[in-house]
Design a protein that fits this description.
Largest sheet: 8 strands, mixed
Structural class: alpha/beta
Distance between the termini: 68 Å
CATH class of the largest domain: Alpha Beta
Helix content: 25-40%
Number of helices: 20
Strand content: 15-25%
CATH architecture of the largest domain: Alpha-Beta Complex
Number of strands: 17
Radius of gyration: 27 Å
Shape: elongated
CATH superfamily of the largest domain: 2-enoyl-CoA Hydratase, Chain A, domain 1
């Protein structure tokens, strides 16, 4: 029996739609070292799991002869699929069709899957590669972007949203990724900026390259817009899979458990001698994280931005956790504006998606200076304080060494409603370091002494004996236990098990007024 003509017509139309902008433009995309929209989706999702929607949608614009440029799908591929067996919704912008520019029809396709994702409680993954708003459509294109932005905001804290920047992302297009939870930039072909180099030249008479204005290295290291930077599109797509493995599908679920192979009671003997005897000598906090986590794995977020604080995901006995840790080898682990904002946003994400928080603390305080004060260290430091105070997920702090001043309070102290606070014997908990404290408390006595230098040293030693240890805080119940470093992994896992059914709440309100 021959195949009916309507079915043949459907197959032909479907094959035509699969060609995007046509063979020449696909070849041009490959010449740039870029994959096509469908190639990206095929690499990301489980084999044969992608269900495409709106393949035959076309734009409705007749301005500037646009009726002569009509392509099925209109520059974006949308649908549902599974990633490691879990349902997700995906859109991939197709640069081969009118430069991937956004029309109102294109926006409606994206909005449709975003609505479906919210209803079904599934992550949304956006693969961005677009020249921005389709100028020929004018206000319709802008309306399309605004509809997407609104859904980004409504989805925030409800379902995970991940944006991969695989090519250009300019103008209003940058704000949708900026609202999502994680932005990944491929360093060779991606860039993001509100206004391009030509506009910068016209308005400010400033010459700047595309990479220097909005490249991946700029946004991962200076602006903090990008949470990850990758070396290839394939690496980007693999990273999305890895990131998803730590995240629940929505805010009503627990994060995904994976059966562990790493023993709960594995001793971490190296930790007993890791912290130097000299309190001013740095060490690498990543060594501690590696020792205590399952299989020594840690997915660091925003690695190149504010490296004086570390944030990222790991597993403890198979369960995902979010880790926030000072990094003593960078600026002695102080909190500055960028570190505070970086940590605050990560804490709020983990709290929104039921991911317990582990804090590893070694902080000498907030970074002083006119630059920090004038740029708002008070306001920005308060964001981190606010985030920890507001979080209701299990929160456990380990004070490794220094916990000084207001930074002690901010780093998930007992008084910010930490569930458990442990300290190593090397912990120093005080208003400030011995030298600074002595110069304030004993100023007159030091000035009046026959040997001010020796008196200063004696008073420093006296102060250190009294406060450069965890016992004064433990006596007041501000620390729940002083533990041997080698037992840290075991104690944290036991604490997480104890807190697994924690129920906590904050006063009813529309929302708080975080100091943005």
């Amino acid at each position: 029996m021959s195949t009916p003509t309507p079915i043949l017509d459907l197959r032909e139309k479907r094959e035509n739609a699969m060609q995007g902008g046509g063979p020449k433009r696909i070849a041009a995309q490959h010449e740039k070292g870029k994959l096509t929209a469908r190639e990206r989706i095929n690499l990301l999702v489980d084999p044969d799991s992608f269900e495409e929607f709106d393949m035959f949608v076309t734009h409705r614009c007749t301005n500037f002869d646009m009726e002569k440029q009509v392509y099925p799908g209109d520059g974006v591929v949308t649908g549902s699929a599974t990633v490691n067996g879990r349902l997700v919704y995906v859109f991939a912008q197709d640069f081969t069709v009118i430069g991937g520019s956004l029309s109102i029809a294109y926006a409606e396709k994206i909005c449709k899957i975003m609505d479906m994702a919210i209803k079904n409680g599934c992550p949304v993954i956006g693969l961005n590669d677009s020249g921005g708003a389709r100028i020929q459509e004018g206000i319709d294109a802008l309306a399309g972007y605004a509809e997407i932005f609104w859904r980004n905001v409504m989805s925030s804290g409800v379902i995970p949203q991940i944006s991969a920047i695989m090519g250009p992302c300019a103008g209003g297009a940058v704000y949708s990724p900026a609202i999502t939870d994680f932005v990944i930039m491929e360093k060779h072909n991606s860039y993001m900026f509100v206004t391009g180099p030509k506009v910068v030249k016209t308005v400010l008479n400033e010459d700047v390259s595309t990479a220097d204005l909005g490249g991946a290295e700029v946004h991962s290291g200076k602006s903090g817009v990008a949470h990850f930077i990758t070396g290839s599109e394939e690496e980007t797509l693999m990273l999305i899979k890895k990131l998803l493995s730590y995240l629940p599908s929505n805010n009503m679920e627990d994060p995904p458990y994976e059966p562990p192979h790493d023993p709960v009671d594995r001793p971490c003997v190296a930790l007993d001698t890791l912290v130097p005897d000299n309190p001013n000598k740095p060490y690498d906090m990543l060594d501690i994280i590696s020792e205590i986590t399952d299989d020594n794995e840690f997915l660091q977020v925003m690695m190149n931005f504010a490296p004086n604080i570390l944030v990222g995901f790991a597993r403890m006995n198979g369960f995902p956790v979010g880790i926030v840790a000072n990094q003593p080898k960078i600026l002695a682990g102080v909190l500055d504006i960028n570190a505070s904002v970086k940590a605050a946003r990560f804490v709020r994400f983990c709290d929104a998606f039921n991911i317990p928080l582990i804090v590893l603390e070694d902080v000498p305080g907030f970074l002083p200076g006119t630059n920090q004060e004038h740029n708002g260290i008070i306001r920005n430091g308060a964001k981190m304080l606010y985030a920890f105070a507001e979080a209701t997920v299990p929160k456990i702090t380990v004070i490794v060494r220094k916990a000084y001043g207001g930074a002690y309070c901010v780093m998930n102290s007992r008084h910010m409603r930490a569930d458990l606070v442990y300290a190593w014997p090397s912990a120093e908990i005080a208003v400030m370091g011995p030298k600074g404290a002595v110069e304030v408390i004993f100023r007159k006595e030091i000035q009046a002494s026959e040997d001010p230098k020796q008196t200063l040293l004696d008073k420093e030693s006296e102060y250190a004996k009294k406060f450069a240890n965890p016992y004064a805080a433990a006596e007041r119940g501000y620390i729940d236990d002083i533990i041997e470093p080698s037992r840290t992994r075991f104690r944290l896992i036991r604490a997480l098990e104890m807190l697994a059914n924690k129920k906590d709440s904050i006063p009813p309100r529309k929302h708080g007024n975080i100091p943005l």
